[in-house]
């Protein structure tokens, strides 16, 4: 069975890692207050200077792909593959998961499309998961959608995702992570580290990035050193002061990490000064 893994644009930032792999991307949308919208693709984000607009306070929101767009993507991929395994953005950030599940139940997709009920995996952790599954398929270690389900469930047990939002009010405006930060919204200059999962929770609080970083370094050394990798993510316009403080803490803490830009959707959700830390089992590329 020839299987393709489908992500949406919340799971990657145009990474070279997934090129030449059996991994495809469905763009989500940015929407504007005047009713117009655009696709979340690297080309359009660059041409419209979306990250800069967000930094200037322009009212830009995000939107799922429509049922018609999902159906068109499924039809396109089924011309080349026997089965689509779709890993959408987490259900606590978007209705994309529910829409994908609805479309996949159409009679013409029964037995041809599987949608993973993603409640915990976000940002580059989705891409890492897709790469992990792609490798298992290439190596012949798994062959069916049912085996992919089980492999992801096991893999996600060891994933750690934490974000330091640049704009708490933007993050909570749509109910995202609200429970984790409600108690500190009115505290000036308080930074909150949020562990992202089905029910996001507060991991640490502090006045400075360095005080927050103690938690990240401790988590890494306590549970994730051998056989794991960390991706330190930021936006294209994250403040140099925030970025350098976090990076310096990781270096001083002897954390082995790589760096990437966070998918653009999260910048719209949490602000341009957002940084994040994603730890997964190492994946060969």
TrEMBL record:
Gene3D superfamilies in the record: 3.30.1180.10, 3.40.50.10170
Q: Which UniProt keywords apply?
A: Lipid-binding
Where is the signal peptide, in residue numbers?
A: none
Classification via Pfam families = DegV (PF02645)
Query: PROSITE patterns from the xrefs?
Result: DEGV
- SUPFAM superfamilies hit by this protein: DAK1/DegV-like
Quote the protein name from its UniProt record: Fatty acid-binding protein DegV
Q: Which organism is it from?
A: Mesoplasma melaleucae
**Annotated gene:** degV
């Amino acid at each position: 069975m020839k299987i393709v893994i489908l992500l949406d644009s919340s799971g990657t930032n145009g990474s070279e890692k997934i090129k030449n792999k059996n991994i495809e991307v469905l763009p989500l949308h940015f929407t504007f207050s005047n009713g117009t919208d655009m696709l979340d693709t690297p080309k359009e984000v660059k041409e419209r200077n979306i990250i800069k607009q967000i930094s200037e306070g322009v009212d830009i929101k995000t939107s799922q792909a429509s049922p018609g767009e999902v159906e068109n993507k499924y039809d396109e991929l089924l011309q080349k593959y026997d089965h689509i395994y779709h890993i959408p953005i987490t259900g606590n950030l978007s209705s994309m998961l529910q829409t994908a599940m609805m479309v996949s139940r159409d009679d013409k997709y029964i037995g041809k499309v599987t949608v993973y009920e993603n409640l915990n995996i976000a940002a580059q952790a989705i891409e890492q998961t897709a790469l992990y599954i792609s490798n298992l398929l290439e190596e012949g270690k798994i062959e069916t959608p049912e085996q992919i389900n089980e492999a992801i469930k096991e893999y996600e047990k060891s994933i750690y995702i934490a974000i330091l939002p640049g704009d708490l009010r933007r993050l909570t405006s749509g109910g995202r992570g609200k429970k984790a930060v409600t108690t500190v919204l009115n505290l000036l200059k308080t930074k909150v580290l949020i562990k992202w999962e089905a029910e996001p929770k507060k991991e640490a609080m502090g006045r400075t990035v360095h005080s927050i970083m103690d938690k990240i370094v401790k988590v890494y050394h306590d549970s994730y050193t051998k056989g794991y990798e960390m991706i330190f993510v930021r936006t294209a316009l994250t403040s140099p002061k925030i970025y350098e403080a976090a990076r310096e803490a990781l270096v001083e803490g002897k954390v082995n990490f790589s760096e990437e830009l966070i998918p653009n959707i999260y910048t719209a959700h949490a602000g341009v000064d957002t940084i994040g830390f994603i730890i997964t089992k190492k994946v060969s590329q």
